[in-house]
Write a sequence for this structure.
């Protein structure tokens, strides 16, 4: 899905999937709901209608969690030397795009938990326009994404390094110290 949206004249600088923490709370909620529904179906007195409702509810919880996990899996943020893109969607593909020439300001934010787990948010502002890429949350290593976009937008015309080409690196903190 990714390569079909990158033009032959573009060079990919960053490709990143959202940090797993973006989906963990949804999966944990689904597990808790599933366990509660399954326990209710086994511990409550035998009533065929109630049993069916609880088991079908459990199935719906698992299906919803699977779809949300699949949507997280296919969502990617890509920065090329010409634009920033976010690709998402399982059945219907959505591609949000902003040319780097429209970027006027960049800000990244990391909460304490984000610093500990290696994710953050990147705010991209454009010239007086509201874009679909205004906020990119749960980005792995947002300093590197921020640095790469800053280098492309505000830096010189020299060759830009490629960042995060294989996803979040393990041990990235130890190399920066």
């Amino acid at each position: 899905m990714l390569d079909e949206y990158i033009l032959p004249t573009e060079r990919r600088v960053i490709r990143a999937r959202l940090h797993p923490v973006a989906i963990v709370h949804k999966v944990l909620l689904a597990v808790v709901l599933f366990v509660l529904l399954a326990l209710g179906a086994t511990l409550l007195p035998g009533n065929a209608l109630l049993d069916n409702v609880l088991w079908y509810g459990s199935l719906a919880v698992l299906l919803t969690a699977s779809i949300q996990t699949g949507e997280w899996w296919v969502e990617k943020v890509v920065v090329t030397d010409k634009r920033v893109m976010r690709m998402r969607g399982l059945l219907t593909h959505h591609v949000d795009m902003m040319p780097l020439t429209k970027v006027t300001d960049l800000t990244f934010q990391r909460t304490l938990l984000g610093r500990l787990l290696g994710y953050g948010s990147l705010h991209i502002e454009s010239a007086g326009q509201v874009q679909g890429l205004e906020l990119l949350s749960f980005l792995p290593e947002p300093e590197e994404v921020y640095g790469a976009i800053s280098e492309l937008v505000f830096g010189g015309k020299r060759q830009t390094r490629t960042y995060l080409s294989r996803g979040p690196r393990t041990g990235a903190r130890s190399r920066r110290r």
Remarks:
- The beta strands are 12-17, 76-80, 83-88, 94-99, 103-109, 119-126, 135-140.
- The CA atoms of residues 110 and 120 lie 5 Å apart.
- The radius of gyration is 21 Å.
